[in-house]
Amino acid sequence: MDMKAKMAEKVKKDAEKKFGGHPELIKKIERAEELKAAGQIIEIELKNILDDKTFQMRSEEIKKEDFESLRSSIKKHGMRTPIFVRKSLNGENKYQMLAGFNRLRAHKELGLKTIKAIYNDNVDDEEAANISEAENLIRTQMSFFDMLCYINKLKERGIMIKDIAERLDKGRRIIEMYGQVGGNEKLTKLIKEDIVTFSDAVKLIKLPPDQLNKKIAQLEKFESKAEAKKTVSKSTAKPACVINEAKGTIRIAINGTIRGKESILKELKKAIVEIEKIEK
């Protein structure tokens, strides 16, 4: 079994395992592999590859340690998976990238002159976009920035949020949250610096603007996720006692363990104080 056949077989198994309930996605991934299998593996000079990111579905905001690991692996062992290219459509004797942008970047930083690529000239724009999308779908894990870049690229192609959610097997609200968090420059910076997670950012973005800005200012002073976690938990925690005088209701929600009974009693005392403040 040659390299392309092995790659196709592995991708097919991974796709069936990950997207067994989404035959349309499996079909898209299999089509991408067919196009790769129909291509030829060639060695290309880096200077002949256009600096074009039309089909880059993955963010360039790859974690430093992940990129260093990729670059180190290529330096020691060579590149296992070729990039995917087609001939440039503008008439130049150049190649256009379809998949493998970070592998290309690693080659450039290592000072290498050539790179191994799968070349197929019978790929139109729609199929090129599908190839790039398929490569990202089959990944076992996508970072926040990968997902945000991917969602934005699909939006640019006119794909509706509900359809994006279906492709990713996620709720529509989660897709919308990527847009809201991604639109806040300071929050995305905290995610990039590994101070907060996407889940933390989702909790924070729901705060009123003044509270959000105040919490972000606090978080910017921290240097680790562990330090920030307490601030996020405190700022997004729901009150134990919620009083709605208009509806005439009181809701008390306190969870804990027997060992933590002291903290539970403390919350109950606070709730009692709040209830006693209600005017009769």
Q: Which strand order does the major sheet show?
A: 1-4-2-3
- Beta-strand level of the residues, as a percent range? 5-15%
- The termini sit apart by 82 Å
In round numbers, the mean pLDDT is 78
State the helical fraction.
55-70%
Main sheet record: 4 strands, mixed
Round the Cα radius of gyration to an integer and report it: 25 Å
The coarse silhouette is elongated
Order of helices and strands: HHEHEEHEHHHHHHHHEEH
DSSP strand count: 6
Q: What are the segments in which pLDDT stays under 50 over at least 5 consecutive residues?
A: none
Query: Which secondary-structure class do the elements indicate?
Result: alpha+beta
Number of separate helices: 13
Features:
two-stranded antiparallel ribbon; single chain; alpha+beta; 280 residues; 6 strands
Brief account:
The protein is of the alpha+beta class and 280 residues long.
What can you tell me about this protein's structure?
With about 280 residues, the protein is an alpha+beta fold. The chain is built from 13 helices and 6 strands. The strands form 2 sheets. A 4-stranded mixed beta sheet has the order 1-4-2-3. Strand 5 and strand 6 form a beta hairpin. Helix 2 crosses helix 5 and helix 7 packs across helix 8. The chain is elongated and about 80 Å long. The model has no long low-confidence stretch (mean pLDDT about 80).
Task: Furnish the topology, listing elements before pairings.
Blueprint (H helix, E strand, L loop, with lengths): L2 H16 L4 H16 L1 E6 L18 H14 L5 E5 L7 E5 L1 H9 L4 E6 L5 H13 L6 H13 L4 H8 L3 H11 L2 H8 L5 H8 L3 H11 L5 H12 L4 E4 L4 E4 L8 H16 L4
Parallel strand pairs: 2-4
Antiparallel strand pairs: 1-4, 2-3, 5-6
Helix pairs in contact: 1-2, 2-5, 3-4, 6-8, 7-8, 8-10
